[in-house]
Specification:
Keywords: Hydrolase, Lyase, Manganese, Metal-binding, Purine metabolism. By secondary structure, this protein is α+β, with helices and mostly antiparallel strands. It has helices at about 5-10, 10-20, 30-35, 40-55, 60-65, 75, 85-90, 100-115, 135-145, 150-170, 175-190, 205-220, 265-280, 305-315, 330-335, 345-350, 370-375, 410-430, 465-485, 505-515, 530-535, 565-580; strands at about 225-230, 235-240, 245-250, 290-295, 355-365, 380-385, 385-395, 400, 435, 440, 450, 455-460, 490-500, 500, 525, 540-545. The strands form 3 sheets. Strands 1, 2, 3, 4, 5, 6, 14, 15 and 16 form a 9-stranded mixed beta sheet that branches. Strands 7, 9, 10, 12 and 13 form a 5-stranded antiparallel beta sheet that branches. Strands 8-11 form a two-stranded antiparallel ribbon. Strand 1 (about 225-230) and strand 2 form a beta hairpin.
């Protein structure tokens, strides 16, 4: 079994020889990475190798891609694959394809090569490391065949890095057991869903309750001293320390519709595993660890977004209890049906005493492409963007599409279209500012009728409140100007107003030190998405750690994914954070 010390002390030639087979027929990667020695950890080695490829020329990158064989291709049939590729294709069952599957793969290989000019690359052992099914491989092949060539070339390189990571794990005898447990928990929890085809878990449904019960059972198995479900459905696990103060952490377990497995839930599993390891070792920290699985963050069933974390900060609005969902069920009644009291007094009692807590930290999948594009497993959040959200409608005049001259139309949809383009241009002009129209509807629209009404949404975000408010003012002014110019009217209803939440300097520094201790580069980035941490920011100092997401960083989507290796690093970083926070164990 290889040791990191052997690599660090080897001659340049021996270094290259030891890494032979890591990157298919491409020793130049190891040649260049040798200069970055010594490597503090294997994770640091992986990042250094990936950096060499990222900094290489396009021709060199294409050469690396073309050095790989097709899946179930001619080389596999002829037995001409490297030992590593043979092992990987066998583990994915590609050597046992049915005639129909083999024919489909051959056609996909031909179509892919014709479109891109290089072979399709997929780490067939997958994010879990056990191997994707042939059905998953074919579905991925079909999906990626539609990608833009530049996007696909970058994805091939990321898949090559994943292949190299698995091969390095094999060389070093690394088994990311904590990451595997996290991945398996995520898969098991995703079995509970309101939709048979896609993961959906909305607030106070039977599915939601089942997830809460499973989390509580796992927390008890992990060795938490106290596990409970509170008045808003939060799952709370406490692992006592030798002192009275606690570190608060966690994330949400509800999901959007057609969700991924890791959004929110990753931030519950990571500290659960840390507590499990402390308990197994019989160790206590000077402070307790309180892990909260927040029951609601996504705002999918009720407009009372962040109702779970609002209860902990004392910001729960009692009028929320009268809100109704799409089926006319009030929040109060939904709570009671889920076994929760639905009473203001019980919810008010959940407010945390600030003096008892050191702060709030959250681990979360990035939900964006930045870390994935930089080949970095972890990132440090500097601030959570402030946001303004609206639902609106432009009202014009529905009239005949054939008989109404262009200059005499009052087209509501055209007005919204103009607003969309303004939002895109205005947001792009300022760093870290974004604007999105995510919902667009022409009620009772017809192909031969000029739209008389058009409903839309607005989502405006920025890293500072000042930048967000400037964007907000400009967009609303432009909406008014468009409608006046086009002879339209509009309504605009605010739905969310959230202030930016800059990370606490001390806790951010601890996260940075924890990541550095793993031998990884420090990369800082803002969070464009909202998180429970931005609500907890109103009560406690907070800071977040991001974990790279696969498939280009996609989230709120069934393709959302993390690898077991990245999950393992997140658990290790959290453990380091505790040490750096004075958590010397006893």
């Amino acid at each position: 079994m290889m040791k990191l010390e052997d690599l660090n002390t080897a001659s340049a030639a021996d270094f290259v020889a030891l890494l032979d087979g890591t990157y298919e027929h491409s020793p130049w990667i190891a040649v260049r990475a040798a200069a970055a020695r010594p490597f503090k950890t294997v994770a640091a080695l992986k990042v250094a190798l990936a950096r060499v490829v990222r900094e290489a020329s396009i021709d060199e990158q294409l050469g690396l891609i073309r050095a790989h064989p097709e899946l179930a291709g001619k080389a596999a049939v002829a037995g001409e694959l490297t030992a590593e590729s043979t092992n990987e294709q066998q583990k994915a069952g590609l050597t046992a394809c049915t005639p129909e599957e083999f024919a489909r793969l051959q056609q996909l290989n031909a179509d892919y090569n014709a479109r891109f000019g290089f072979p399709f690359i997929l780490a067939v052992r997958g994010p879990r490391g056990l191997g994707l099914t042939r059905q998953e491989i074919i579905a991925t092949f079909e999906r990626r065949l539609r990608a833009h060539p530049d996007v696909e070339r970058a994805e091939c390189l990321r898949q090559i890095h994943r292949i190299a990571e698995i091969r390095l794990d094999d060389k070093f005898g690394i088994k990311p057991a904590l990451g595997e447990q996290l991945w398996d928990w995520a898969a098991a929890l995703a079995v509970h869903s309101e939709d048979e085809a896609f993961l959906t878990c909305t607030y106070a449904t039977p599915t939601h309750t089942a997830v809460a019960e499973q989390l509580m059972a796992w927390m008890r198995d992990c060795g938490f001293d106290d596990v409970s479900r509170d008045a808003v459905g939060n799952v709370v696990g406490v692992y006592n320390g030798t002192g009275d103060q606690r570190l608060l952490t966690g994330s949400h377990y509800d999901t959007v519709r057609r969700a991924g497995r890791f959004d929110g839930r990753l931030g519950i599993f990571v500290p659960m595993l840390v507590v499990r390891e402390l308990h197994r070792a019989g160790k206590r920290l000077p402070f307790g660890i309180e892990v909260v699985g927040f029951s609601e963050e996504e705002g999918q069933r009720y407009a009372a977004t962040f109702l779970a974390s609002s209860a902990l900060t004392g910001a729960f609005d009692p009028t929320w209890l009268e809100q109704s969902d799409a089926h006319g069920v009030s929040l109060r009644d939904a709570m009671r049906a889920a076994g929760l009291p639905g009473k203001v007094a019980a919810i008010t009692a959940l407010k945390r005493d600030r003096s008892r807590y050191l702060g709030f930290v959250e681990v979360h999948i990035e939900q964006g492409p930045v870390l994935d594009s930089l080949d970095l497993p972890l990132g440090i959040v500097t601030s959570i963007n402030g946001s303004r959200r609206y639902t609106g409608e432009i009202i014009g005049l529905a009239s005949h599409a054939g008989t109404t001259p262009m200059g005499q139309r009052r087209d509501a949809a055209a007005g919204v279209a103009e607003l969309i383009l303004f939002c895109e241009e205005r947001a792009a002009a300022v760093p870290d500012v974004v604007a999105t129209v995510g919902m667009l509807e022409v009620p009772s629209g017809s192909i031969n009728v000029i739209p008389g009404r058009c409903r839309f949404s607005l989502d405006l975000r920025a890293t500072t409140d000042a930048a967000r408010d400037a964007l907000d003012a400009d967009v609303r002014a432009e909406l008014d100007a468009i409608c006046q110019r086009r002879g339209l009217s509009f309504t605009l209803q605010p739905t969310v107003a959230a202030n930016a939440a800059p990370s606490d300097a001390a806790w951010q520094t601890r996260w940075e030190a924890a990541v550095a201790e793993l031998g990884l580069p420090i990369h800082r980035l803002p969070s464009g998405a909202g998180h429970d941490a931005m609500k907890m920011h109103e009560l406690l100092p907070q800071a977040m750690l991001f974990v790279r997401g696969g498939n280009g960083g996609i989230s709120h989507n069934p393709l959302e994914s993390v690898t077991v290796d990245d999950a393992e690093l997140a658990v290790q970083a959290f453990t380091q954070l505790l040490e750096l926070s004075g958590g010397n164990t006893t």
